[in-house]
């Protein structure tokens, strides 16, 4: 029975690590709130206290999404033990709804569309001090755009990150005319079903073709024992999320792009997502997504096929 209990707990523990951290932070903020106003220190107080806590978070300038996350975190222990939780209360639900209605969140990240992608990748040799770095960042920028990748799918958290969640060399197969990518796990695929992507040559501009660019990068990629990340520096260290964001700002500044601080790692994905409307694909066609587990993404002679965007609209949704 002990082993059954242990296995039950393991199977139940399916929340991502960052979610657990947020829930722990919610508990800490609630403790501070209760201490400040000399309230009973309980995990989940009466509805009145929860309503006051929501108002307190709002006055502290927490975003509506964070407030909702914190309330979910506070309620989690009660849900876990199948107990009644006050977050289900009508007043609490309406308050959370009101936060989003009265203070909608605006995404201030600027997209990187095709013309800007060309500019910043052309500027890389003028910014980088070595011959390997321009190839590394150009291939990562272009792949992030054409495959609509999240930064967590192709970069590591830090230099010492030994996990294999970011793209590995074995996850990519390049031929003369196409590029095959296996994304093992992502934000929308926490269980690791994996997503298979095929990208053909981009015929409009060879200088930013993902197939040709990645082939050139792979030919120059050093063979360092034990280093299997797809994107890595010449010394064998993996490309990190911080490095990608920091490098993106340099060519944006170099090209005198307005509001350079708005260009972030997610800007490639946002830029690619703006292309369907430019190509005359209506919103309904984009929203009718394909099945997300095994998808063939095609790049036509013009740009990306309509089926690509049907799926990728769901794939990039946050």
UniProtKB/TrEMBL annotation:
Residue ranges annotated as transmembrane are none
User: GO terms for biological process?
Assistant: DNA integration; DNA recombination
| Keyword tags | DNA recombination, DNA-binding
Which InterPro entries does the record cross-reference, listed alphabetically? DNA_brk_join_enz, Integrase-like_cat_sf, Integrase_recombinase_N, Phage_Integrase-like_Recomb
Q: Which domain of life is it from?
A: Eukaryota
Gene Ontology MF terms in the entry: DNA binding
This chain belongs to the protein called: Tyr recombinase domain-containing protein
Q: Which organism is it from?
A: Mytilus galloprovincialis
């Amino acid at each position: 029975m002990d082993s059954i209990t242990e296995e039950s707990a393991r199977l139940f523990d399916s929340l991502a690590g960052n979610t657990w951290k947020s829930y722990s932070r919610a508990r800490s903020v609630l403790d501070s709130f209760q201490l400040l106003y000399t309230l009973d220190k309980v995990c989940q107080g009466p509805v009145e206290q929860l309503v006051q806590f929501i108002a307190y978070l709002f006055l502290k300038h927490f975003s509506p999404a964070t407030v909702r996350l914190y309330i979910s975190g506070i309620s989690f222990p009660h849900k876990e033990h199948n107990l009644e939780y006050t977050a289900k209360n009508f007043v609490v639900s309406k308050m959370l709804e009101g936060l989003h209605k009265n203070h909608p969140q605006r995404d201030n990240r600027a997209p990187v569309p095709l013309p800007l992608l060309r500019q910043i990748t052309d500027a890389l040799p003028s910014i980088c001090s070595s011959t390997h770095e321009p190839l590394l960042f150009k291939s990562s920028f272009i792949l992030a755009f054409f495959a609509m990748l999240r930064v967590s799918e192709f970069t590591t958290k830090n230099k010492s990150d030994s996990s294999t969640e970011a793209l590995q060399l074995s996850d990519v197969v390049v031929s003369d005319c196409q590029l095959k990518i296996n994304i093992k796990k992502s934000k929308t695929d926490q269980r690791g079903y994996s997503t298979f992507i095929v990208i053909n040559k981009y015929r409009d501009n060879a200088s930013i073709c993902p197939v040709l660019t990645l082939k050139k990068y792979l030919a120059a990629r050093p063979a360092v024992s034990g280093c299997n990340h797809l994107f890595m520096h010449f010394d064998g260290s993996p490309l990190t999320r911080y490095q990608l964001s920091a490098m993106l700002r340099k060519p944006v500044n170099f090209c005198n792009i307005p509001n350079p601080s708005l260009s972030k790692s997610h800007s490639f994905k946002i830029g690619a997502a703006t292309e369907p409307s430019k190509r005359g694909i209506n919103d309904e066609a984009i929203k009718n997504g394909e099945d997300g587990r095994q998808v063939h993404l095609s790049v036509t002679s013009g740009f990306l096929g309509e089926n690509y965007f049907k799926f990728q609209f769901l794939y990039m949704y946050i």
